[in-house]
Write a structure and sequence with these properties.
About 60% of the residues lie in helices and about 0% in strands. By secondary structure, it is mainly alpha-helical. About 10% of the residues have low confidence.
Length: about 210
């Protein structure tokens, strides 16, 4: 039966492929089968639209992906993000977060989210602003906030402040909403036993070289 499902997976489209992978995921497949399934999921991801891409990356995460698998999947998700509308963009950023994004991936995703903020409606704009705060924003990311459909709120400003040098923050402070002098003067907080440093993005970056 498993062999038949694998054969069906080889010929499936992205939508049907996700269902077949779920069927194959338990009990845990043999290593050779896992390798074959991962290869097919990655091939389906190359042809997927944003909705199916999100589901396929979730499936990939349960298949013991190798570092090269994650790199390929992140590249595809970022390519889709470059062409996505605001609603699909939110879904793709979530997909990226499950793939162990590298710092360069987060920087690229932030750039696209900033572009989407210029075109989003108020509902999506609210979600995009929150998403931006999870991508390791820095002070310069806030320079164009006046064109966003929603102004950055305190949480985003605080994260960007923590991720930036004081000189960089002071350069953008005059253009920020309300100028937030309290944030400008806020020293970097030290946690017990730890020195100051930038706030880590919510998404866990891959540690593989």
């Amino acid at each position: 039966a498993r062999s038949r499902v694998l054969d069906l997976l080889d010929a499936a489209d992205p939508e049907d492929g996700f269902s077949l992978v779920k069927t194959l995921s338990g009990p845990r497949p043999e290593q050779d089968d896992l390798t074959r399934i991962r290869g097919r999921v990655l091939a389906l991801l190359d042809a997927a639209d944003p909705r199916d891409a999100h589901r396929l990356t979730e499936a990939l995460g349960g298949l013991g992906p190798e570092p090269d698998d994650l790199t390929r999947a992140r590249s595809r998700v970022l390519d889709l993000l470059d062409a996505a509308d605001p609603r699909d963009g939110l879904s793709l950023v979530k997909a990226l977060g499950g793939l162990g994004p590298e710092p360069d991936d987060l920087t690229r995703a932030r750039g696209r989210v900033l572009d989407l903020l210029d075109a989003a409606d108020p509902e999506d704009g609210f979600s995009l602003v929150k998403t931006l705060g999870e991508l390791g924003p820095v002070a310069n990311d806030l320079l164009g906030w006046a064109s966003w459909v929603r102004a950055p709120e305190h949480d985003l400003l605080a994260v960007a402040r923590r991720n930036s040098s004081l000189s960089s923050w002071l350069e953008v402070l005059p253009v920020l909403p309300g100028r937030h002098p309290a944030i400008a003067e806020q020293p970097r907080q030290r946690l017990p036993g730890r020195g100051p440093g930038p706030l880590r993005p919510k998404f866990r970056c891959s540690t593989e070289s």
